[in-house]
Each structure stands twice: as structure tokens, then as C-alpha cells.
Specification:
Mean pLDDT: 88
Shape: globular
Number of helices: 6
Order of helices and strands: EEEEEEHHHHHH
Distance between the termini: 17 Å
Largest sheet: 2 strands, antiparallel
Number of strands: 6
Structural class: alpha+beta
Helix content: 25-40%
Number of domains: 2
Amino acid sequence: MQITTELIQCPICAARRLNRKLLSANSRGARYYTDGYIFPGYPLFVKCPDCGAVFKAADYDVSGETGEGVEYYTPMTVKEYRKAIEKGFANAADGDIIALRLELWRTFHNPVRDADAGERATPWKGAKEKAAYTGNCLELLRLTENCQDDEVLLTRAELYRNLGEFDKCKQTLSLITQSDDYESFIAGLLEACAKRKKRTFRL
């Protein structure tokens, strides 16, 4: 893996923090999951601790300037992602809302992605979080319904599986054109469907 550190300046208040960025992810030292998360994962979106603005970190990289003594951003929480989606975020561009919702989806999974069978089994705690999780999955499916890109189809298949829609997961996987490129991924999802397993897992 290749990792770099960026100096990021908030577009609202100009406060600066550091953020790590994954340049490339080979198999050495990386862990891959069915929701597209790669460990170690670094924030695509950050929240300014000074003014509360949420923005895409890479759009405000000022790494050519000094960053001595500057602290790192902390990963956003489920609650912070939900608030950013509801209230909007700084200088949003086309596609950013999908990316933000994908980050929310993956953040929901973080507490359980490596959990044993006897540990917490769901990515939510309580009825309200379950409704928020389900609603986000459904909205991602709506936002991507006209896209036939293979990687998007893999994401859609995983969303359906997370929702317990196993037949729709399998149907979506059948639409992938370059299936040889994703053979182990597809096989893992089909096996999980056969066992009626909904939780995201490590590939």
C-alpha cells in the first residue's frame, strides 16, 4: 500500500488539519470488504472541528505549504454523516451525495465488519438507526438505478444483500459484464446469499 499525508484547509474558516490518503492498495497489508471498504481506510469527507463544515478533503489540499504542529482529522461518525446529508455540505459537486451516502453506509458497518458470530450482529443500534440504515441503502439504490458500470453493480448487489433481498442481489450480479475480473467477489456474495447472510464481510 502507498499512503500519503495531505494538509487540508477548510473552505469556510480556513482552519487546517492533516488527513491521510491511500494512493494505492495492493494485497500487502490491506483488508478488503464486500461494501468496498479497504482497511486501513482514510476519510474521503472530513468535518472541520473549528466551524463544523463538512467537505471533500482532496478538494482543499494545500500540501505545498507547511503543516508543522497541525493535528489530524478524526473520522466522521454515523450521526455526523447523517447530519451532513440532511443539511448539505460545503461546495457539493455532482456525485458527491452518492459518495457521502456510501461513506455513511460503510461507517455503519465499521463496528461489526470483523465481529464474531456471537457479537453484535447488526450495523445499527435500535429502531431509529435501523430505519436510517435502511433508508440510506434504499436511497443509494435509487440514485444508482440507471448505472450499468460493473463496480456500481457490485455495490448495488451488496446493498440488496444487506437488506436481505437475496434474489435481487443474485440478479444484479448476473448483469456484470466482466465477471472474470470479480470472480472471488461474486462467488463470496453468492455463497452469502445461499446462506442468507446479510452482514458485510471480509473478502
